[in-house]
## 1
Amino acid sequence: MNLADTRGRSLHDLRISITDRCNFRCRYCMPREIFNREYEFLQRELLLSFEEITRLTGVFQDLGVEKVRITGGEPLLRKGVEELIAELSALELQDLTLTTNGSLLSRKAQGLADAGLRRVTVSLDSMDPEVFATMNDVDFPVTDVLGGIEAAAAAGLTPIKINMVVKRGVNADGVLPMAEYSKGTGHIVRFIEFMDVGRSNGWRLDDVVPAQEILETIAAKYPIEPVDPNYAGEVAGRWRYKDGSGEIGVITSISQPFCGDCTRARLSAEGVLYTCLFAVGGIDFRAPLRAGATDDDLKQMITDLWTQRTDRYSELRSEATVDLPKVEMSYIGG
Ligand code: SF4
């Protein structure tokens, strides 16, 4: 099945947030001024159950979804996540992956692999302990995340992708050390342009380091060349080292928007479906799920939503759009 939207983009990737909670307070995602002790996170009964997530994923699969990414908040905080992975793995999707801050990976990597997880993406914004602690704002040691990456590699959750959000004046000096950390390891670092997701991270265009500048920084020391995408709609632009020691990626939502072949839908932990990372609203699937909707009812809802989709926020981004009441990334995952 190939469900296409108004721009001919097929529904191929489903990102599923399974919790809005996190043990980090990354400044560009969950600044602690807002996500503090008073902040009301989703109560357990509001979260989709693993059965509901698996059933809904099966419905999406019938409509063409082949790749599922589990996100959060921090998904490894959700109790029994391995059970969900096992249920989703039984659907025999083309790809089943998970994005984590790596804090619990040392303990969980082998169990996730045994449950059927294919790969992991680890968010790691600096190799420098002080900068890393400043960015995650909980003083979590970078060495523990590096240990988690090694545990994931040992468990076979490869290739491991590493996401670094680059912010000028904060961690931009860490681009080369991050490239050197992954060079020759098989891990793939993706350098992400700082984005105006949600409306609580104080985004300014001046804080963005364009991908071109990042690539030039690396190329000045290690010659690189562009590589074709693995598939249409792949998020990161691929580059490889000319000496054959691996590849890196850049995610360029600000400088080179890629909405033209965006094939991603996002489901929040409480069952609201969004068709863009920068959406201001979504469609509730929990109520119909719990009210006895059939799979055909759910398919019709998804079909109606996707076939009318026109999203292209990054192409339209301007000063006027930055403060729109966009959904928070910690709520729908990246
Ligand atoms: S801005 Fe929206 S439509 Fe564009 S690539 Fe991102 S998620 Fe897709």
## 2
Amino acid sequence: MDLEYLDLIRVLASLAVIAAGAFWGGRRLVHLVRLLGRARPMPDRWGGWGEKIRYQFRHVLGQQKILQWSTPGVLHALIFWGFIILQSQSLEAIGEVFDPNFAIPLVGRNDVLGFLQDLFTIAVLVAVAGFALIRLIQDPARLGRTSRFEGSNLQQGWYVLLAESGLLYTVLVLRGVRATKGTLPYPDGAFLSDWVGQQFAGLPEPSLEVIATAFLVAHLAVLMGFFVFTVHSKHLHIFTIPFNVLFARQPKALGKLQSEIIDLETMDEDTVLGVGQMEHFGFKRYLDMYTCTECGRCQSQCPAWNTGKPLNPKLLIMDLRDHLYEKAPYVLDPSLANRDNGNVGGHEDVDVLGQMLVGDEPGQQNAVIDYDVLWSCTTCGACVEECPVDIEHVDHIIDLRRYKVQMESSFPQEAGGMLRNIENSGDPWGLGATKRMDWAEGLQVPIVDGRIPDDVEYLFWVGCAGALEDRAKKVTRGLAELLDAAGVSYAVLGPRETCTGDPARRIGMEYLFQMMARQNVETLKEVGARKIVAWCPHCFNTLRNEYPDFDGHFEVIHHTQLLSQLIVQGRLNPRSEVAKKVTYHDPCYLGRHNEVYDPPRAVVDSVQGLEKVEMPRCRNHGFCCGAGGARMWMEETIGKRVNHERIDEALELRPDLVSTACPYCMVMLDDAVNDKAGRGELAEGQVKVVDVSQILAESLLPVAAVNGASGHPSVTAHQGDTAPESAARQ
Ligand code: SF4
Ligand code: SF4
């Protein structure tokens, strides 16, 4: 064939492939960007760019989170880094369409680049082969598991591996031919391309040109096909991850909830609270939907999913995404709703406009998200913690709850009492202010009267459970005695303390939460609170992370942080051995939401004689007790009880004590132990659920009682040299 004709064919065929891919893929990208523009703005996501960019480097370029998942993580990172480098090869291929001697300006003739290109070609090939192997080994059908991803979704994974292999194969042959012709711009570095080129040695030039043209057009066809496929599939995440990470809450979407500041002054009948339809979501929620890689890491840790509830955080995001795509034409052009019956999305079997986002009862057919899915969440944050691409599941769930509760009054009615009690009595149990100091009966606990005196260091925030729940009250009492014994000056608000509003906020009753928050901030400012020690992690989280949005800025620590400091300072000196086996359960709102993992363990570690064992799911991978997200006040009728699942994990270790640092966790785990004892699976008293402070007290007191008399007190006593009462009682 005449080489001039071949040149013409190469240029025309390449341009046709590039133009078709750019048109088809570009049209989809424009559609997605326009859709994103219709979401609600989220002004709080703009700014703090320095930290965001540093995070981007660590998280996206550094693949920090991905690398935590051993083999697949390393393979994924290799593919990611490889494809950044290998983009330069595709760029060279595009340049070669017009100039057979093309080299990337500035760096395109540097042997180091040629070497890296070939090195990463091998690395990516190894990673692709590794993923293919994993797919074969973990094929759900072969393992006898059912999977929603059988069929097209499962095949998508194979398409991607095939496309990646195709890209590498075509570009490698292309480079090999260039090496043979002497037009590869890397004289020494491209070792693999040179080796491939040796296989073509001796072929006449016309044959080399035909091979080069064929593989150039093939490479561009695979490249553009991959682009088109990517923007039309879940692999869209390749493009959206950097943006999703850029606009993620820093340092992560745990701790405080995304605020929905309700302005009573400007509220009218058109005000929408929460999210009742797609158009109400903020743009980061759309980005989340675009970005889910369907890796399933969130579901693997979700306490709801792992105990047989219908909630699966991955499917939740995917269902919302499917609905968004179906409803997109109406979101982009609301006037369409008047013109057709809701089938413009091309899904004749789905009445998109007739669908509600969340059902009002289980199993409702025209709901995108089932009622039981929404109300199964404990807001434990495991999904957010695990998600490698910073999807904010809890915020999605709370957005939806806010609408159901505040706009439709549609929520598990058994939780209604809790909301009424908070509103009327200031606590979820409805016991009222007069009962708030019952826990301190017989103790000299100072109650703030007016302003907190300057010589009082801490305001001890007791919390509703700590003040009113019988098991938690014992811990509160013991804590007060430990503070006394260590010489910590503190005072409590007593009857002026009310619920922080945490359960109201987590169920979606933002209005009530904000009422409580404003009231508490006012009280705290009035008494001049500076440093607050909270015993309940939910109060701790709310006071520390959420009240600043209501102008409540205090130094807030958890009781385990204070106790561990007091131990280090020698103000609490545990000496008596406690010869028991103990495990520690991380409360979600202390651990994952606030990253307080070590202080409670330090309290336990300070006690001699204990045999300490960790549960497999611990620290940031800890498993919820089932009480968060206002689940404490909802019935649990589906699947296995979450607290039973957790206690079973603890009991595998055969402990004497299951320790924790949260009144909710204590109650839930204790209930589970009692259930087991009631069924004869445990002997009465065989396992005790305790707060870590109770173990500390046990190790302090017997020795204190003895040593106090002999002049070697184990604690620096605040009110005389006597030992804390609670420990003495033990
Ligand atoms: S917050 Fe916890 S319970 Fe809720 S979806 Fe995430 S992992 Fe599941
Ligand atoms: S962990 Fe994140 S990316 Fe993976 S399935 Fe869950 S939401 Fe999607």
